[in-house]
Structure formats: C-alpha cells, structure tokens
Amino acid sequence: MGFARTCSVALVGVDGVVVEVQADLEPGVAAFTLVGLPDKTLVESRDRVRAAVTNAGAGWPQKKLTVGLSPADVPKSGSGFDLAVATAVLGAAELVDPRAIADLVLIGELGLDGRVRPVRGVLPAVLAAAEAGYRQVVVPEQCAAEAALVPDVSVLGVRTLRQLIAVLTGGEVPAEETAAEPGRPDPLLAGLLVPGAGLGSGLDRAPAGAGGCRPDLADVAGQRAARRALEVAAAGGHHLFLNGPPGAGKTMLAERLPGLLPPLTRQESLEVTAVHSVAGLLPPGEPLIATAPYCAPHHSATMQSLVGGGNGLPRPGAVSLAHGGILFLDEAPEFSPKALDALRQPLESGQVVIARAAGVVRLPARFLMVLAANPCPCGRHHRSAAGCECPASVVRRYQARLSGPLLDRVDLRVDVEPVSRSDLLGHGGRGETTAAVAERVRAARTRAAARLAGTPWSTNAEVPGHELRTRWQVAPGALGPAERDLERGLLTARGLDRVLRVAWTVADLRGRDRPDALDVAVALELRTGVSRGVPQPMGERA
Questions:
Q1: Number of folded domains in the chain?
Q2: pLDDT tens digit string along 194-234?
Q3: Considering 273, 284, 350, 460, which has the largest number of Cβ atoms within 10 A of its Cβ?
Q4: Which residues span the domain enclosing 409?
C-alpha cells in the first residue's frame, strides 16, 4: 500500500480554495477512482494523467488507485488539477519522495504526451495558495511570469511532466527539453525554485495602443462640453451618458477616457489581472495589467456575457473585465433591456453576485460606465428635429429603452452636438491633449484621496450620500438650487446625492476645499443636461 498527498487550487469565481489531492494505492483489481465533487473535465483527467505518466517514462501502478480531492464539498472544475493528480499518484507509487511533494501547490493541465499546458486563473490560484501559507508553487512554464507576480512565493515553471519528475528526484533534466527560448532564462537551470519577482519586476509597463501610441484627446474636434464631462468623469469615477447624432464623436471620446485615468495601484493591478486570468484574456507577454482596462461589448451581448454566467460556476462578464476601468456601451438603446437592467446592482455595489445550483460567486465589478446613444433610430432627431423622419411615438419608444432606474444611476448626462465646420477644419484651435487633462485629473484625485484617507472609499463616486451630507459640508446655501429641483420632482433622492458627489469632484478640479454654489450649478447642469449659464470652472477655456 502507498499513500501521498499534494495540493492544488479550486477557483470559485476569482477566489481560490486550496485543495488537498490525496492518492491511495491498495492491492486489488487495477482501477482509477476520482472522488471529491469533480466536474466532467476533471473526471476525464484520469485518462490524461495515465497517458501522461506512461509517456513520461514512469510506470503506471497496476493496483487499485483512489484519488480524493479535499474538501469534498467544494465544486472542482477544469483541467488545472492534472499536474497535482499525476504527482500524487507518483508519490503513492514511491516513484518520487512523498515528503517532497506534501507542501507543493501544483497547477497545470497535462497532454497525453506529458507536456504541461497553461490554464486559466493562475494568478488568483497562487494568491490563494500564498494566503493559505504555501510558499512553493509549480505551474506551466508559460504561466511562470504570471505566478511570480505574487511576492514571497517561489515558482517553478515546467514544460513537461518528465522535467518535474527529474527535478523532484534529483536527476538530470533532459537537455533537449530544457532549451530556453532566446532571451529567456530557463527556470530549471537556475535552480529548483525561482524566487517570485513580486510587483517590482518591471512587468507592469503600460501596453501601447494601435500603432504604438494611445488615442489622444486632442484629436477630438470641438465638443467642449463633452470634454469637460469626460474630465469630471475621470476625476471622480462618475458614470457618463453621451447622447448625440452619429458622427459627433461619442465613440472617440469614450476611447480616450482610459488615458485620463491614473495608473492602477498595485492592489488594483492584481485584482484586474486576476479577473482577466480567470477569463483567459491576459495579453501575451503582459502578465500584469497596470493600466485601466477598456471593455466595449457589442450591443448583441446577452445578459450573461455582460454580468457573468455560463454552465456550472459562472465566469466573469464584461462588467468584471472592466473592473478598475471603463465599460463602454455604444448604441446603448440597442442592448437588451433585460441586460441593461442587470447592470443596476453592480453599479451600486461594485460587485456581481451570481447564484447558481453549483454555488454562489462574487465577482468584482467596480467600473466607470459610459453609455452612448443616438437621439432616435435614424439619428437625426435634434432640438430643431430637422431631417428626422421618425414619428414622435417611435422617438419616445426608442429613448425609453434606457430605463429611468438605470439612468438615475448615471451621474453625468451630456448632449453631444454635431461638430461645426469651424471646429472640424481646426479654425477654433486644437484642443487640450490627454496628458494635460490627465494631470488635472491626477491632482483632483490626489485631493480626494487625502480627504477620504482612512475610509473605505477612494473616489467621490463611491462615497454614500449620507456621508457627504454629514461628514463633509458644502458652502452655506450652495445646495439651494438642487434642493429646489428635488422638491419639484426634477431630481430623485439618489439624484441629489449624485449631484453632491459631482460637486465635490468639480471642487477638487478647481482646487477648492469644499463645493460652492458654482460647483453645485455645474454638477446640476451635468446631471440634468439643462444649461444654467455657468462658466467653465476647469478644463479648457473657450
């Protein structure tokens, strides 16, 4: 009889649970039983592991084999347990020292030929292992850089099961299988375990956009009001609604919003990278995402693709892929009303809670939402209604596709006017660059962070309304116009709170300690879309 154990990690959303993989060999008819609530993919690992062990040159034990995954009440899915199962079997057969694998965490899929293939979710899995006290991790070589982002964890990247057996038994690693790629060190030749690089590894450089540069706000012709709203949205983390005819520049504005946001903090980078790792969407060669993500799903997206879902345990949707960045919904009225209304809960809480028969999953979803819409199906409906052929009933029905409760959660609403001939030809001068506006955004966020130090919030958009009303006071009488709009039914109670949040952001951009009447007036104009004749207190000067 033989017994061995090692560890792997089960992912529930973006949270990991360390799983002990136990292998037990007993005399009897040769059989392979896998227990511990595995899904179909994991059940199929029996055949993958048997073939991989045989093709790696190790004999398969001809005894009754039972592999248990503990805790047994946690659902386990995917092929990432293959490497741990194979290693536990080898330990039970005493082909490797069972003591050498007892404290290892192994993550990876096995091919029938013994190759170790990459899997999703390596970063959150290694984070969970580190939090549980494990300090030695074995992953596929392609995932080693991702795993090494976790500090104080030693990472071994392997290409084949044969390499792992050679390392664990102290044998010579076959030279033909350890040839490192040009310019890349071979972790096996550097020692048994490579110290984790942590977050100071130089892997957090910002990815370049198309053509090697990011879109610049200076490319947008005119649109001073929309540019001002973009600056306020970036400074305070406020949701934004752009309404205007086709070709006015709504998409151009949204695409330039990520450039205004500050770089992600180290903790934010790990959270964002973990979500993209689980979704299998990490950019090649960029194991750590350090800039705000930008997610723009097509209007045919289903509710599950927006908020998360799928068979078994749910996977991240667009709202989670936009965590820490921008979720842009172009042609917003064309989205399914059911899908749009599903956004209301994550907009308030900053997370998605999905209940399925297999379990409940919580996914992070703290994002800045930008909605863009045409005023009518033909797009030519304007204040003068010139050129629009849509009947009034069709226009009303089209605009009603964005429900009141959803729009009530949007802080900024801007009418994007058609670009004038003068602005298009550059007669009005070139607008401010992304770098210039981003510097003001950075300064405003610094002021807000100093004020919110010691609280759970980092931006004005996250602060509950009652906290703003009680803990931080505006100038006397500044809220008068907003309170009158509330009494007349032009603002809801939630709307008043959001006006107050925007007013604090405007004050931060102006460098003021608290909002005054002008800041509240700007916030009301940005909230209601009704011009109140206020000058521009920040951003570009006309």
A1: 2
A2: 334 333 333 333 334 444 467 899 888 888 889 999 999 99
A3: 460
A4: 210-528
